[in-house]
Design a protein that fits this description.
Layout lengths: L1 H13 L3 E2 L8 E7 L7 H9 L6 E4 L1 H6 L1 H9 L3 E4 L12 H12 L7 E2 L8 H9 L3 E3 L3 E2 L9 H11 L5 E5 L5 H17 L3 E2 L12
Parallel strand pairs: 1-6, 2-3, 2-8, 2-9, 3-4, 5-6, 7-8
Helix pairs in contact: 5-6, 7-8
The structure holds zinc ion (ZN).
The site of zinc ion (ZN) has 5 residues, from loops.
């Protein structure tokens, strides 16, 4: 979709310090799952990924890590990466810079080591982004949004969006949440099957990814 590629291009210009996709000649896709870990959905995601030897990145909510440490352990044991998605899934635009940063730090205190950060709702004021970058984080956005959380979108549309927009180096966003569960359970196996048949690999976001490479 040309307009969509153009849109991502413009976003990159406005936010050069954020990673929207990963420049790659290889057939590699970067699946990301936000808002977990939760026992109702995350273990199923892990089993489904394992069927294709797929590695992914989980942008976890600190509060869910606190509540579900066993589920987090499973994610790590399976060889996936964890990213910081704040402790309480804060909306940047409604939060002071100080309080936002405190929430990022509260996640760090859980003892999960990561240099990947994704702002909830995809929103992050520049003042907050600056502080987060200063702490050594890479701010990871996406170029393909499945909209699995949106109750107005059908599961077929969710699947079709990913199949039609993902390309080499795409960062694809799903949610391992109760809200997205129905669509995720429909779309994820089909996405894996489709791109696996096309010769794609699924990898975690590399920690050393440079913004200039994005
Ligand atoms: Zn989120």
């Amino acid at each position: 979709m040309k307009w969509f590629n153009r849109f991502v291009f413009i976003l990159k210009k406005i936010y050069p310090n954020r990673i929207w996709n990963i420049s790659s000649k290889d057939k590699t896709l970067y699946l990301t799952f936000d808002d977990g870990p939760i026992p109702e959905v995350t273990p199923w995601v892990l089993e489904t990924l394992a069927q294709y030897q797929a590695k992914a990145t989980f942008f976890c909510i600190g509060d869910n890590i606190k509540k579900n440490p066993e589920t987090l352990k499973q994610v790590i044991t399976e060889g996936h990466k964890i990213g910081n998605h704040t402790y309480h899934h804060l909306n940047s635009y409604k939060t002071s810079t100080e309080a936002y940063l405190e929430n990022v730090l509260a996640f760090e205190k859980l003892g999960v080591s990561t240099n990947l950060f994704r702002p909830p709702y995809g929103k992050c004021k520049s003042s907050q982004a600056k502080k987060i970058l200063e702490r050594g984080y890479k701010i990871v956005m996406w170029d393909v949004i499945s909209e699995d959380y949106d109750k107005n979108i059908s599961k077929e549309k969710c699947l079709n969006t990913v199949l039609s927009q993902a390309k080499n180096g795409s960062i694809i966003i799903f949610h391992d949440s109760l809200k997205a569960e129905k669509k995720l359970r429909y779309a994820l196996p089909k996405v894996l099957e489709y791109f696996n048949n096309k010769g794609f690999n699924f990898k975690s976001i590399p920690e050393n990814i440079a913004e200039s490479n994005a």
